Amino acid sequence: MTAPVLVCTVGGAAQPIISAIRAATPAFVLSLVTADRINEDGKPQPGSCHQLDGPDSIPIRTGLDRTSFEHVTVPPDHPDNAFATVSETLRSLRARFPDNPLIADYTGGTKSMSAALLAAALAIPGATLQIMAGTRLDLVRVADGTERPFPIVPDFLLIERQAALLRNAWKTFGYAEAADGFATLQQRLAARPDAPPDLTRRIADLAILSQAFAAWDRFDHATAARTFADLGARHAPFLGRWRTSIDALLGGCPVCC
To answer: Helix, strand or coil for residue 52?
Structure first.
């Protein structure tokens, strides 16, 4: 198996990153770190970049040589800028290592850094997500040496994002494309017994709406009317104007079944 490329958000604790590197035995490691800064109270705040320097650094403790790791500095508390930096970094890594699996570990670092890596990784085909989990002795940290990689499967996040893209297809009259896409999302949700009922219901309704508009777009007004009827009374306020128009196209004879 080809060794992976590991991307880690680095914070104040080095041990989770060290455990992640040892578990993955990666071909290359990229660390997302923060720079030194001055807090609002005027006191200096050391950045996590120092985790990569000195005799007790992450590279030294994991045996990484200079050709197998790099770091990128990201803003600690600016999600938008952090996301832009991390997204560019991941795209560059994918181009450099097209045949290596890409693992994004967002255990360490600030909340904004972790959120940026999570969001950016969702846009990279084939990228996998993980956090390091272990024995927790208190509410502050996990006991050193107990960390193990815990894979994250963000199916519901991806489905929400893909649903938004499919709804945009309506703007260009891509109703049939949207109908096919929502049908695929329905199949994915059906395979997950833990799927949120609200998400399952919304995707099903969007699939039916797309089918109705696709039928209307090809001048199959009777099928469009019957498909609208499948959505039931709970969507009556939204569908009112469309039902009126479709009934008019059918010569004033509503199709209810």
So the answer is: helix
